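TA notes, week 10

Several of you asked for a full example with nothing omitted. So below is the full record: structure tokens for the whole chain, then the designed sequence directly under it. When grading your own attempts, check the secondary structure regions first.
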């Protein structure tokens, strides 16, 4: 398999799929440039070698239509500044042949948002799954996707996949395009290599004890990974909104707390499975309950099983925090995905902060800690603790799928299944 370190880009044109889906404010100004910084090592290596660079990305969800709100034109100056060299811009990603052909070594061209074309995602538009013509429409769109990928591939001599955040999608630019290059002319970028290695650290050669902390709002969106982790971890902390589905399933009274009524059996099943597998399942026992879903609500500490009517649990309580900490500080491998409370409200960050502090302490004592998924990364950044953990993943869904043990299409396209 070709690796980016082995490849000499001198005199070559490289098309690189990055994830520049950065958050913008109402004036189109970037509010967090982590993703741009994440791609720089790959982009700079290509330019330093003497290659020409074609950058492609998506931004937002324009659903196959041109939408200026999601134009990558808005970030051209920021990318130029980050790279320290002017970046040319192709306002139509599927009509950039001439601009690509004219590129000289050391020059950079950025393509407009790939998702302005439905072919990028390859999903038929304007037709529902239950329509009798859906399968035919899907087939037709897949054929168009192949052609679109071939067009993108025609701009360059080699392809670099460095968009971990979208590596779990089999899109034209993340996977299908790789079919147009032989094994010596396609490779993962440095960011992808780092992310894949971080996941390997969690899945292979696990240093024990291994503690996983899963939080967030719902158990339903995390069930795949929870079940998968059950075979690997020693301690499994389930926190955040899903606490109340577990509490209710065991007969608790959860007031207005977020609760998935149709997942009560699933919660009991998880409890039983943890027991059978000898996993130490740590669930919150108390919470900070609020009389409104608001930062300024009145609060009280109560048992997760006895929340008064009209009140809802918005954060982990003091006893829960202690239990979480106890399962984290001695761990040697740690995975954290999802906050322990509504951390967007400053008054309900305590549970997540306690988790972050325990992870930082364990990391100082030699643990490998991986934080992933938008919200837990936002937490760590909010607490200013990003440098106190081992690795912060740029992937949300991609990270979870990788940890579930699925082969990501973006990785498979380069490395095989
Ligand atoms: P997810 O997207 O499933 O990872 O969930 C992240 C969201 O869960 C964040 O926006 C949190 O505000 C929310 N969350 C965490 N704890 C709670 C809770 N106790 N009640 C309601 N929402 C919560």
């Amino acid at each position: 398999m070709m690796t980016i370190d082995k490849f000499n880009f001198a005199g070559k044109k490289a098309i690189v799929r990055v994830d520049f889906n950065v958050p913008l404010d109402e004036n189109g100004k970037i509010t967090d440039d982590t993703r741009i910084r994440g791609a720089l090592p790959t982009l700079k290596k290509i330019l330093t070698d003497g290659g020409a660079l074609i950058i492609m990305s998506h931004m937002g969800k324009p659903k196959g239509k041109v939408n200026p709100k999601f134009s990558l034109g808005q970030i051209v100056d920021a990318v130029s500044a980050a790279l320290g060299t002017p970046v040319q811009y192709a306002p139509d990603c599927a009509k950039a042949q001439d601009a690509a052909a004219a590129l000289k070594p050391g020059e950079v061209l950025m393509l407009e948002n790939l998702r302005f074309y439905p072919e990028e995602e390859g999903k038929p538009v304007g037709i529902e799954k239950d329509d009798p013509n859906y399968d035919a429409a899907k087939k037709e769109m897949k054929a168009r996707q192949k052609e679109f990928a071939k067009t993108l591939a025609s701009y360059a001599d080699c392809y670099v996949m460095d968009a971990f955040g979208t590596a779990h999608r089999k899109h034209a630019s993340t996977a299908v395009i790789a079919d147009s290059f032989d094994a010596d002319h396609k490779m993962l970028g440095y960011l992808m290599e780092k992310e894949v290695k971080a996941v390997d650290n969690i899945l292979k050669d696990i240093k024990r004890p291994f503690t996983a902390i899963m939080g967030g709002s719902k158990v339903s969106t995390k069930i795949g990974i929870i079940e998968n982790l059950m075979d690997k971890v020693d301690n499994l902390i389930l926190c955040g909104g899903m606490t109340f589905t577990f509490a209710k399933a065991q007969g608790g009274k959860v007031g207005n707390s977020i609760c998935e009524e149709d997942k009560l059996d699933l919660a009991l099943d998880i409890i039983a499975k943890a027991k059978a597998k000898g996993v130490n399942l740590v669930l919150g026992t108390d919470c900070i309950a609020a009389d409104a879903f608001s930062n300024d609500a009145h609060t009280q500490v109560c048992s997760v099983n006895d929340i008064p009517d009209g009140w809802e649990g918005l954060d982990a309580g003091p006893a829960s925090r202690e239990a979480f900490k106890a399962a984290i500080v001695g761990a040697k491998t740690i995975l954290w995905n999802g906050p322990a409370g509504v951390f967007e409200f400053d008054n309900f960050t305590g549970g997540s902060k306690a988790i972050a502090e325990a992870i930082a302490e364990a990391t100082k004592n030699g643990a490998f800690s991986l934080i992933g998924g938008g919200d837990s990364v936002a937490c760590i950044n909010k607490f200013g603790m990003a440098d106190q953990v081992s690795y912060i993943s740029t992937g949300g869904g991609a990270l979870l799928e990788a940890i579930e043990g699925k082969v990501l299409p973006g990785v498979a396209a380069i490395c095989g299944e």
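The first strand starts at residue 13 and ends at 17. Use that as a sanity check on your answer.
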